[in-house]
């Protein structure tokens, strides 16, 4: 039994008496219920040792009033170490000292109990962790494919030989983020510039530089274009001594 008391004094400081209460540690009480309340249930051993080195509470009633030699070295060891062994069995030990009451509280539980609890916890959360990893992996894969799709389409289009329709095909590519959009715009401008240069070189190869009229190559190119058209005709006149006519009558007359 533990006797607790507190002095009662008047407003002017005179001693009036005391308020006392007793706690029966060997019987079920509120204190014993609080001390024994652990989620490990029966696998935890709680021991309270008073200032005289006697056990005043233990989850095993037979240990009550037993002497315990708690030396300062042992208290320091229990404060700095989380495990130990007793009777050939490994335990996890927790120690705390209450300065006001000079009590020593020791909590111990077998190591295999904690290991089993951790293993059960891992089994319970493993399904959730795997589900989270699955959704994260799926999301990353989907986002990566969405990011790579415009770049892949641009790369395939560059490899094609259809230089005349490439600018129009570039415009149809959906570049939904800024980097792909800027790359598409740069490639589209480059394709249009190359197409314009190609057309200029083609016209230059099919026209006479002096008169600007189609030469023989240009004539055959136009003939291929209009041969399937109705009400169209083409006349080719091959004039000998063309240079002499130009020199005598001028380029406008020779043209």
TrEMBL record:
Residues 230-255 form the GGDEF domain. The keyword Hydrolase does not apply. It is an enzyme of class 2 (transferase). One of its GO terms (biological process) is negative regulation of bacterial-type flagellum-dependent cell motility. Gene3D superfamilies: 3.30.70.270, PAS domain. It holds the Pfam family GGDEF. The chain crosses the membrane at residues 125-144. It catalyses: 2 GTP = 3',3'-c-di-GMP + 2 diphosphate. Its EC number is 2.7.7.65. PROSITE patterns: GGDEF. GO terms for molecular function: diguanylate cyclase activity; GTP binding. Its cofactor is Mg(2+). Keywords: GTP-binding, Membrane, Nucleotide-binding, Nucleotidyltransferase, Transferase, Transmembrane, Transmembrane helix. The keyword Thylakoid does not apply. One of its GO terms (cellular component) is plasma membrane. InterPro entries: Diguanylate_Cyclase (IPR050469), GGDEF_dom (IPR000160), Nucleotide_cyclase (IPR029787), Rev_trsase/Diguanyl_cyclase (IPR043128). It comes from the Bacteria. Pathway: Purine metabolism; 3',5'-cyclic di-GMP biosynthesis. This is diguanylate cyclase. It comes from Raoultella planticola (Klebsiella planticola). The gene is yeaP_3.
């Amino acid at each position: 039994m533990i006797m607790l008391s507190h002095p009662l004094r008047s407003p002017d400081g005179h001693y009036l008496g005391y308020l006392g209460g007793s706690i029966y540690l060997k019987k079920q009480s509120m204190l014993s219920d609080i001390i024994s309340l652990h989620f490990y249930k029966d696998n935890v051993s709680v021991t309270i040792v008073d200032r005289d080195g006697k056990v005043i509470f233990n989850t095993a009633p037979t240990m009550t009033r037993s002497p315990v030699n708690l030396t300062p070295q042992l208290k320091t060891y229990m404060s700095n170490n989380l495990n130990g062994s007793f009777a050939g069995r490994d335990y996890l030990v927790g120690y705390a000292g209450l300065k006001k009451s000079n009590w020593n509280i020791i909590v111990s539980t077998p190591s295999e109990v904690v290991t089993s609890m951790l293993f059960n916890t891992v089994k319970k959360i493993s399904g959730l962790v795997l589900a989270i990893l699955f959704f994260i992996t799926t999301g990353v894969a989907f986002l990566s494919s969405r990011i790579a799709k415009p770049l892949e389409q641009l790369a395939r289009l560059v490899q094609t030989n259809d230089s005349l329709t490439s600018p129009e095909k570039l415009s149809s590519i959906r570049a939904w983020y800024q980097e792909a959009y800027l790359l598409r715009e740069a490639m589209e401008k480059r394709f249009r510039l190359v197409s314009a240069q190609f057309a200029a070189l083609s016209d230059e190869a099919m026209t006479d530089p002096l008169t600007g009229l189609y030469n023989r190559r240009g004539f055959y190119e136009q003939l291929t274009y209009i041969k399937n058209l109705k009400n169209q005709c083409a006349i080719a006149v091959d004039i000998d001594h063309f240079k002499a006519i130009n020199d005598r009558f001028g380029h406008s007359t020779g043209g």
